[in-house]
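Limitations

Structures in this collection are predictions, not experimental determinations, and the ligand pose is part of the prediction. Treat each record accordingly. The example that follows, with 1-deoxynojirimycin as the small molecule, is included so readers can see exactly what is and is not provided: the inputs are given verbatim, and the output is the predicted complex.
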Amino acid sequence: MAGDRTVTTPNALPMTALWWQTCATYQVYPRSFQDTNGDGIGDLKGIEQRLEYLEALGVDAIWISPIYPSPMADFGYDITDYCGVDPRFGTLADFDELLAQAHARGLKVLLDFVPNHTSDRHPWFAESRSSRDNPKRDWYLWRDPAPDGGPPNNWISDFGGSAWAWDAPTGQYYYHAFLKEQADLNWRNPAVQAAMFDVMRFWFDRGVDGFRIDVLWHMVKAADFPDNPPNPAYQPEMGEMHRVLQLNSTDQPEVLGIAADMRAIADSYDAKGQGDRVLIGEIYLPVDRLMRYYGRERAGVHLPFNFQLIDAPWEARSLAKLITEYEAALPPGGWPNWVLGNHDRSRVATKRGHAQALVAAMLLLTLRGTPTLYYGDELGLSDVAIPAALVQDPRELREPGRGLGRDPVRTPMPWDESRNAGFTAGRPWLPLNTDWPTRNAARMADEPHSILTLYRRLLAVRRAHLALSIGDFALLDAEGDVFAYERRHNAERLIVALNLGARPHRLQLPGWASNCRLLLSTLPGEARAGDAAMLLRGNEGVILTSD
Ligand code: NOJ
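Predicted complex:
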């Protein structure tokens, strides 16, 4: 029997929602968005050119993956100057122009902040490695060899192999959680903190609306560098990093103080009347540990990224459990957020299939909290198979053939039917999706039932009905593959019902909803609502309204 169940929303929202609570954010991977100078790599002018598209799509903010000067060993996550722009992407003046144009369209702009590590070619690291008594020696993590001359402990890089690199001239190892070209900073050193906090102010002062903070949970390591325990569940196909549990190399209590210091910097801009700035922390941790990053006595980041939907079993009951448990775990005032994919993870259309990618879009854009979209997902892009000779990603090059590489999810945005899908006049740095002649933005914008049209409608409906972004969330009873919930804000009540399977299902509606009308379906054609029940077609998601 259907009916209202426990209202799971634990946190009442302040009377006026803040922009980062109602906004839908769109992640731009700048290398792959739009090239304007024919080098096969996207650039800032390209993003500026496509603001119109983003505005029409209906997102409210963009997060741009790193644009700073970089040798590109890890495609921009290895930075040599935190306050500049890599010439491949343009200039600081291009960035200022992009920011101004985005703001003029009402779009917020978030940058990627990469505080855990610098490039090994950063001038700080050059100084640090120049001698043991250099004043910047302690800006990085230097350790003597183990008694056998090997690495100081068993920590493994996320990209495979020991996380320690030997520096023969000074006779010590330095720590790198990722590539050896990405040396970890010593965040226990106050001078490092001060320098990096200045970087945040540099961009905030220019008008940037927030940061996505790279690997926030990695930033502080156990002070005495004990070994990590072995992982009893390790299987080689997981990647070598999973040989050990990263208990001592990540998620140390001190990082929460750093997150709070960063938050204080962000909040100081609002206090000066310069508008709210938002911090989104990249944190891959179980929910109970993730929640600590909202802060306790002192506020932490606004949004510790919640990646659970990326890997969740696509099954109605377990999704319902995951969502209610996450809601219940939020601390007072903690604002939820949801994500289906990013530049490191398999695309949603590949994981869930094309039919369910539409249902997933409806889920993402009707859950309580802030959603982040990954570029190209609105076109239903799949992971693109990259021939071995064209592989770029160091993750794949270091552990080939295990499906760990990220090139497949970073391929150029297909814009139209012109050469190279309108992405570049040159040779794209990665191959396009093979179906780009039909799967491209221009074509799909004209198709009434394309996934792009659905994303636009969903974003418009979400904007028009506050219940969808900030309303209370309550699970509804449903059976089989159907996952259904109610969203309520003031007098407005909406129902979202998602069929995660391919077979039709009847959904019993709660009493108050017997006169509901269909606001939006993921499928063409009128949905059929009886008085007390509605028939969901296979792979269909619907939003019903009571008005
Ligand atoms: C997380 C980023 O998302 C990923 O792309 C990068 O390789 C690592 N951090 C290292 O910066």
